[in-house]
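Lab meeting minutes (informal)
Scribe: AK
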Amino acid sequence: MPLSIAAAFARPSYPVVVIGAGQAGLSISYLLKQQGIAHLVIERRRVAFAWREQRWDSFCLVTPNWQCTLPGFPYDGDDPEGFMKKDAIVDYLERYRAHFDPPVVEGVAVREVRANATARAGQPWAGQPGAGQPVEGRYIVDTSHGTIATDQIVVATGGYHQAILPAMAHALPASITQVHAIDYRNPAALPPGAVLVVGTGQSGCQLAEDLHLAGRTVHLCVGDAPRVARRYRGKDVVAWLDEMGYYDLPVERHPLGTGVRDKTNHYVTGRDGGHDIDLRQFAREGMRLYGRLNDIRDGVAQFDARLAEYLDGADAVSESIKTSIDAFIAQRGMAAPEEARYVPVWEPGAPVRALDLANSGITAVIWCVGFRSDYDWLKLPIFDARGYPHHARGVTPATGVYFLGLPWQYSWGSGRFSGVARDARHLLEAIAGTPTSC
């Protein structure tokens, strides 16, 4: 059961405060509790909120269930090769919470975290009942329900905070409904008519498929996101990459280095047991594909002419992954069934550069163009010019301040169920080795 707000704020300080109660926050809480380290987990809404409220109805994982390995609570279901749907993901996290009863207080928003300039000097701190008594703690956590001091903070809020809407969204006619992917739920929730989906990362491709399978006319703006096959030579590609050590590759050893953090994820799906997402096949079935959306003027969408290049590029990435799997099989002398390579099933004709939205019957636009991080509330000098935290495996230059659950924080799995446990254990060592006064 979550802590009551009154119980959480009954004490003025904690040795460790964890901000966020998703899979990252719960993971570090489990390890802290195992070590007997007192702490408080502050959750703005409720445990697993993003999975509950910010995913569409048919959402499911794109990684197999066996990769769900939270600390002390690996996947225990009867379908390890399957892909958990949204409700099952929420259930998994709720069962994890029940498994070890973390000290979580829900419905409390963190407004500001700042250095505590006076506590170390033994000066009274007036921000909490009992003022006049010195309160130790390097940092002050100011929340919607009170203020707490702490020596160590784990920021476990992920890296996707604010949905991006491009400036051209304001140019859409008022008659067209527009939503970000975070607010999409199902085809029936949109007005009747055709739908323009902007973006072909994982969300864009999966939402386009969701609408397409529901019989909606879909217009899809394609970008340079890569794709990956679901299965190859007898196994899920994720299983091959796991055997090949890809998921253990530290970000510093990745060919792109930390630049991989800015790359769009490969699109694939776990829907209906998992399969490839082939935009060319969608086009054969009636989906309309265009290049990247450049502008909207007077109700007319304008695209670049690079659709063929984007499709070819996505296919090339998928085939290159297969080539690496072939090489791995050959090097190990492994027995694996042969499989023919992908042959494109559709080729675009002359590029369509403009589309009149009203004449095309488009009544809704879904923006699948990503998120930006927001750490304005963290008033500490630990960020680069783009607002990304300086850190080494989640350990920042500020004593006692850590991040957990960032995409590619250390490896591919850092922001996922598969790698957050390893990152949390690394942070536990740092936390346990840092002296506290609370």
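Next up, CB showed the second protein from the same session:
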Amino acid sequence: MNLIDSNYSNRQSSEAASERTLYPYVTGTSVVAIKYKDGILMAADMGGSYGSTLRYKSVERLKPIGKHSLLGASGEISDFQEILRYLDELILNDNMWDDGNSLGPKEVHSYLTRVMYNRRNKFNPLWNSLVLGGVKNGQKFLGMVSMIGVNFEDDHVATGFGNHLARPILRDEWHENLTFEDGVKLLEKCMRVLLYRDRSAINKIQIAKITEEGAATFKPYSLKTFWGFSAFENPTVGAEGSW
């Protein structure tokens, strides 16, 4: 082997050693979140898809962050775990100051925008869309961050298919004085629409809330569904002339 061939071979092996994941492996689908009268409500299903296979049925994607924030994520599950590790270090460092103050949701959201944008600039993005909500000093905050660092704040946010299918419902039915019960019903309606139309969604969902008193994650449960549509029994009903 001459010198040129040797350099080419070494370069190939070096490039192979530094390859990055081009596609996510195990992913979670939509997260939907809203502001309600007392704080923030968030919902996500428990599915984890290995490609197009619904491999896992008990994946939790809603996590409290510090004292004032709640995080939800869709996308690659292992990348979400990496983000949680970053946030654990951030909260630990903040607690070590012991100055009587703690990071609020705005600060955590800003940190996440920098993390996601930084990884995007390294061409090694974290394959997640994140929803960050929280309450501090009576101020409610709700925002999202995409995998390339695009971010915004709103009264209701959603990731994945939820951005297309759930937010139109929220625009019509959301209002700032929603009670906890009405907020849960609205989220269930959104999650049911996603279940019917998103192949990666399952009917086992989890809901979490955060208020001035702190975060609470509720036990997962199954949505009630209805599949007895008359069109399955007689596909020509309401469509005469098209068959």
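CB comment: The domain at 24-224 is CATH 3.60.20.10 (Glutamine Phosphoribosylpyrophosphate, subunit 1, domain 1).
No objections, moving on.
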